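Posting for a labmate who doesn't have an account.
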Amino acid sequence: MDYIEVRDLRGEDWVWSAKKFLFHPNVDAQMYKVYSGLAAYANNISQRAFPGILTLAEKLHMGRSTVIRAIAKLEKYKFIKVERSRGSHNIYSLLKIPDSSPPRRLVDPVDETVFNWDDYKAGMLNDPRKEINIIAYFFNAKQKTFETKAQVEVAIKTHLDDAKDLAKFDRKKVGEKIRKLAYDWPKFTLKTVTKELVK
């Protein structure tokens, strides 16, 4: 008879998560993986952690943008609290998992297609108009998420003139400046990007 060794809970470094988080209807695989990564770094008493985005991406074998999107979703559903600090790592607090799942968003009976922000953003990045690409880069760097197409269209209209001003610059330089400002100065605007590029 073959001997099968079962796992032993003693002497191992475990990461625990609540069943109601694991089975929550709004939790996807990326969210669960990132939450587990934060839990691995969290202080047992304060439940606070401050790993860098790149550290999480490397340790979890995930892309940087995927980690950022997962953190934004975890924050949106109040599974974590994020304290953003300019020039330093964010501080993440693991919050008490709510007793009941948040209500699901009802689909408009007139339009039965559910809006997917990630897909819409990918379309913006592939749009032939340079100003739309820039706005997509900007939204991504600011970790913005939208629930409806109407919300995105309003946000695009708000930033369109500034994005058209930036369209005159080299696309790569604009992207690099947006990424740098997102790290150094999270409250930056597209006007800020233009000012930095003309210095």
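Reply:
Got it, the structure tokens are right above this. The two ends are 76 Å apart (CA to CA).
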